[in-house]
User: Which sequence fits this backbone?
């Protein structure tokens, strides 16, 4: 297939995919669950106002938001899903009241047929939509009002300082006095009520709730819809069709026979003399290894909260570093060090490719470096201040904790980071421009590289599309533009292009084959990945069409990942092709591990939770971090390390490396990650899924279930994988430090002469 056809295909796929994404975005704006102007009793008592609900969303965000349990299944995996928990408690209060009034006994002691009768009545009462669109008033029955008041008292005690709930707070890793102000607590209760109301209230003219019957809870009538089952089946069919078509294309256009006679006999990069700006990149990697170690430390603390509540091996941390902060920093540091490694690789590669060092390029590289340091330190400090309730709601939005997973940093820091990406884009293009305007065999690959660079810089801007009190459904829509499109989409494309570039520059890959391969891979990624964003939004107050599109196209996302084994095998061949290539063994091995984790983490574990019926029962369970750890670190983290090692090799090209520490790092990081997943996250997620199917989401997330002996043992087993992984990270850091001190370099002989 010629490149012209592929370029046309890429343009059409991009245009059509984003058209669909934007159209349904408009539908989400139009069909989002309404926020009532007033929630009132039948007697006219005002329980909540619209402003309270909006302020309550901000209060929830200020304490960590999606880092403290989940709402609509999005967020952290310790503590309940507050929507599911609220509905369960509300339903139990109502059923208990009816049972006592009509039969004089507890509901649990009723005969099954009488329980069923009351549950049917409950479902009719809860699922009826009593919201008046004309007046904006939502009326609640006396029974619901009583249940709501019971819930508000319970949550006030939990998040404030009720001593009778101390054990439960410890199980949820929620410090006493998380919320100190009664007005703030009343507002957050209003938000919790509204989020739960949307989960159980049927849309006008429909038998589905605003969240498509999520969370699963048969007592309140929340069961999977016909569409959820239907589109699950269709997604499996699409996966099989996609794999078949890609297999055909792969068989017709690919040859895995490596002709070593065509490879260069000496390292084409051996004569590379790094420019001042390329040398200035080194400091980025000092920061990268520091952030890796800090991220692992916060990860250890975060995981340990699951077994020891608010302590770390007896050391009380809840008043200094509560779970919400530890988890926030753990996730954010991962994004920071991965992004820093990739940005640094781009800044190194651009002058190397073009052979052009623009004026003041080194100054720009140094300026960006210090800007990134300020963003890392400033955003982390702001998040801590926000969670510790030291900021007002407006200041918290701008400088504190936004409460949305992966984009927790305050709006000021978001804008600052976006500006940093723009500076990076400017630095990249001024270095690449001479090569872009020059007609050459590699020009098309350079254009692809440039497009990926633009996408990485600009698509982070989607995180600026919501405001302080933006509706949760809309905020989730734009948040997944960042998390899915930016991280999982364009980072993937950038990675593919960069890897191809490196192998082309080393003379190991034909430029024509690389260009067509990357173009085709980009088309396949985007064909499934753009609209596949919707698989995150099945139950986020979105129209039912989102389920159909998300199921279909997220299945296609998996298709290219199935063939990552071929990439791993091909790259392994390259690593053994000639004697000089062996100097790049460990950078290439980390690239090979990316192919493996793409297949297992993004492909296998991703598809485990992507089909609608699977996610219906699994959303918010430990099957999600199973996929998240394998994909985020296994794919993007390993690639970041591989790129870092390629750059470091370029900066120390003259000398042999002592690679013992790299060998330890590679095998322990990959092995530790696998043990972490198989010994802990996977079995915990599977057991939670069984509980969710049998009883409901509220039970799968409850303290009674999660604090059982089996679950506690499984969480302790994570220590094995975590420890091995940590050893690998320290080994990697020691190797990088050793490049500066000399213990990682064999200076007894030079690979290349000056």
Assistant:
């Amino acid at each position: 297939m010629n490149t012209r056809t592929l370029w046309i295909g890429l343009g059409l796929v991009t245009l059509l995919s984003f058209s669909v994404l934007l159209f349904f975005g408009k539908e989400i704006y139009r069909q989002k669950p309404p926020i009532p102007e007033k929630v009132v009793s039948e007697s006219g008592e005002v329980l909540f106002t619209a402003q309270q609900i909006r302020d309550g969303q901000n209060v929830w965000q200020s304490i960590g938001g999606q880092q403290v349990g989940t709402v609509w299944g999005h967020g952290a995996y310790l503590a309940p899903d507050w929507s599911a928990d609220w509905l369960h408690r509300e339903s139990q209060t109502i059923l208990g009241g009816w049972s006592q009034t009509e039969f004089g006994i507890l509901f649990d002691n009723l005969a099954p047929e009488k329980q069923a009768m009351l549950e049917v009545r409950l479902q009719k009462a809860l699922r009826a939509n009593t919201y008046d669109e004309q007046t904006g008033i939502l009326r609640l029955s006396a029974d619901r009002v009583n249940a709501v008041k019971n819930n508000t008292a319970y949550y006030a005690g939990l998040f404030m300082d009720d001593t009778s709930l101390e054990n439960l707070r410890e199980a949820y890793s929620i410090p006493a006095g998380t919320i100190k102000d009664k007005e703030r607590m009343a507002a957050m209760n209003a938000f919790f009520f509204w989020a739960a109301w949307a989960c159980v209230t049927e849309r006008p003219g429909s038998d589905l709730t605003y969240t498509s019957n999520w969370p699963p809870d048969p007592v309140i009538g929340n069961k999977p819809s016909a569409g959820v089952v239907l589109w699950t089946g269709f997604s499996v069919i699409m996966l099989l069709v996609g794999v078949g078509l890609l297999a055909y294309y792969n068989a017709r256009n690919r040859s895995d026979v490596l002709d070593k006679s065509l490879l260069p006999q000496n390292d084409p990069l051996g004569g590379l003399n790094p420019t001042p700006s390329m040398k200035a990149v080194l400091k980025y990697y000092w920061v990268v290894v520091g952030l890796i170690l800090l991220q692992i430390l916060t990860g250890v603390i975060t995981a340990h909260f699951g077994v020891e509540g608010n302590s770390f091996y007896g050391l009380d941390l809840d008043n200094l570093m509560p779970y919400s902060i530890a988890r926030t920093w753990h996730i954010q540091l991962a994004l920071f060090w991965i992004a820093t490694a990739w940005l640094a690789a781009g800044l190194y590669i651009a002058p190397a490719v073009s052979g052009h060092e623009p004026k003041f390029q080194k100054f720009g590289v140094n300026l960006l470096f210090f800007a990134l340091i300020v963003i890392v330190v400033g955003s982390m400090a702001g998040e801590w201040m926000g969670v510790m309730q030291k900021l007002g709601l407006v200041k918290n939005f701008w400088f504190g904790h936004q409460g949305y997973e992966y984009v927790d940093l305050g709006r000021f820091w978001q804008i600052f980071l976006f500006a940093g990406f723009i500076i990076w884009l400017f630095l990249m293009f001024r270095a690449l421009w001479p090569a872009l305007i020059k007609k050459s065999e590699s020009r098309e690959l350079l254009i692809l590289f440039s497009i990926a660079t633009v996408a990485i810089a600009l698509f982070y801007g989607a995180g600026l599309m919501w405001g302080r009190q933006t509706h949760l459904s809309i905020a989730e829509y734009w948040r997944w533009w960042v998390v899915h499109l930016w991280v999982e989409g364009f980072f993937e494309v950038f990675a593919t292009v960069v890897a191809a570039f490196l192998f082309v520059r080393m003379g190991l890959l034909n430029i024509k084959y690389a260009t067509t391969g990357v173009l085709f891979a980009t088309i396949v990624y985007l064909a499934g990945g753009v609209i596949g964003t919707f698989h995150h939004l099945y139950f986020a107050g979105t129209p039912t069409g989102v389920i159909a599109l998300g199921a279909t196209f997220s299945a296609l996302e998996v298709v290219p990942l199935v063939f990552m084994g071929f990439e791993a095998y091909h790259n392994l061949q390259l690593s053994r092709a000639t004697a000089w290539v062996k100097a790049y063994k460990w950078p290439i091995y980390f690239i090979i591990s990316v192919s493996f984790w793409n297949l297992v983490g993004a492909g296998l574990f991703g598809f485990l939770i992507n089909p609608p019926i699977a996610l219906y029962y699994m959303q918010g369970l430990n099957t999600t971090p199973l996929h998240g750890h394998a994909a985020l670190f296994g794919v993007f983290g390993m690639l970041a390390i591989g790129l870092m090692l390629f750059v470091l090799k370029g900066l120390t090209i003259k000398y042999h490396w002592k690679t013992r520490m790299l060998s330890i790092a590679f095998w322990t990081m990959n092995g530790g990650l696998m043990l972490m997943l198989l010994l802990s996250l996977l079995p915990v997620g599977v057991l939670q899924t069984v509980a969710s199917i049998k009883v409901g989401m509220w039970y799968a997330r409850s303290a009674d279930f999660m604090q059982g002996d089996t679950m506690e043992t499984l969480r302790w087993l994570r220590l094995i994988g975590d420890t091995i992984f940590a050893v690998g990270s320290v080994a990697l850091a020691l190797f990088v430090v050793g490049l500066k001190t000399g213990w990682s370099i064999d200076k007894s002989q030079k690979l290349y002469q000056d």
